[in-house]
Design brief:
Elements (H helix, E strand, L loop, with lengths): L13 H15 L10 E5 L2 E10 L5 E2 L2 E2 H14 L4 E12 L4 H18 L2 E10 L7 E10 L18 E4 L5 H10 L16 H9 L4 E6 L4 H13 L2 E5 L7 H10 L12 E5 L4 H9 L8 E7 L6 E4 L5 E3 L13
Parallel strand pairs: 5-6, 10-13
Antiparallel strand pairs: 1-2, 2-7, 3-4, 5-7, 8-11, 8-12, 9-11, 10-12, 13-14
Helix pairs in contact: 2-3
């Protein structure tokens, strides 16, 4: 690990993992801790999911959303993929001197609307103002609490995954990263690219309520799909085979990626979930996804295998094979 913090340490890739292991885990916990989106805690005999997140996206407004909507969606999704029902959120603001009050009102209105859609309550918060130049307009920190109605806390740890289980995503990859990139650099792509920022808790609840045997869930944010698949492979000491031709990517996003040299497998999303399900339930999962506005492009993209443990192998769009590693370095900074 390097002696100084770089932007790579916030990418969600290998540098982020090293930072967590070498600094935070060594200081705050044991090396055996599961690094999941939410902590699962037992309180008075009941289990709750507990998560926290910070949002520093630049710019704060982008096609399809803003930092306020993003803060609610990111927090809700971290709870939902842990198998919990999101209930309560705290939200704190660090505001830069000179921020237009009109912009702050737009952001808070966006927060309120998204919380209403997700059916969560904002119950507490805090506000700090710092001198101009000490913050980039507005930073937001959240904490979320969710409850469990069923024995689903195994989902975030993938404890029941077996070879043959199918890997599914609910829609197209890369939309959020490309939308933020265009807004940040005022690039006119001449195509309508919008962030996929959305709360996934209702979509996930529809699947779980059907009794579908879901083995693992993770929202596909920093580090992209590739990094999550690698974390999963190493977590279970199993291999993963991916059919890249099946991975949905909007044509305009794919074209922009080809021009700029990006791989959609590594781009962040804010409304996409990866699910690992029992092979007998794969068709039911796809049917459930496609009945929902946020999952109508849901598709099986691969499966868990015994071969090549701890590795992710992709079958390319031209029929070859390649090793898909975790994100190395930084592709597009400040996407959340």
């Amino acid at each position: 690990m390097s002696d100084y913090i770089t932007l790579n340490h916030g990418s969600g890739g290998r540098a982020s993992s090293e930072l967590i292991q070498e600094v935070f885990i060594k200081s705050f916990g044991s090396g055996d801790d599961f690094l999941t989106d939410s902590a699962i805690l037992t309180f008075s005999g009941n289990k709750i999911a507990f998560t926290t997140d910070s949002f520093v996206v630049n710019p704060v407004f982008f096609p399809g959303g803003d930092i306020g909507k993003l803060s609610i969606c990111g927090t809700v999704n971290d709870l939902a993929v842990s198998g919990a029902i999101p209930k309560y959120i705290s939200i704190s603001f660090i505001l830069e001197e000179g921020l237009p009050v009109g912009d702050l009102k737009k952001i808070t209105e966006s927060i309120a609307l998204e919380a209403k859609i997700a059916k969560v309550k904002i119950v507490t918060g805090d506000t700090k103002v710092v001198p101009k130049g000490k913050c980039d307009k507005i930073f937001i920190n959240t904490t979320g609490i969710g409850i469990f109605n069923d024995d689903l806390e195994h989902l975030s740890q993938g404890g029941k995954i077996n070879p043959g289980d199918k890997i599914i995503v609910n829609g197209t990859l890369g939309d959020h990263s490309v939308a933020v990139l265009g807004a940040r650099n005022e690039i006119d792509f001449n195509v309508d690219v919008k962030s996929d920022c959305a709360c996934l808790n209702h979509l996930i609840a529809d699947i779980l309520d059907k009794g579908i045997k879901v083995k693992f869930m993770r929202d596909i944010t920093r580090g992209g799909l590739a990094t999550i698949l690698n974390e999963l492979a190493r977590m279970k000491n199993l291999g993963i085979d991916i059919n890249e031709k099946e991975i949905p990517v909007v044509e305009s996003v794919m074209g922009i990626c080809e021009i700029l040299g990006f791989d959609p497998m590594y781009l962040a999303n804010e409304g996409k979930v990866l699910l690992v399900v029992d092979p007998d339930d794969a068709d039911r999962t796809i049917q459930s996804l496609r009945n929902h506005a946020l999952g109508y492009l849901g598709v099986v993209i691969g499966e868990v295998v015994n071969d090549h443990p701890n590795m992710v192998i992709g079958r390319t769009r031209v029929g070859g094979k390649r090793i898909i590693d975790s994100l190395q370095g930084e592709q597009i900074p400040r996407i959340c």
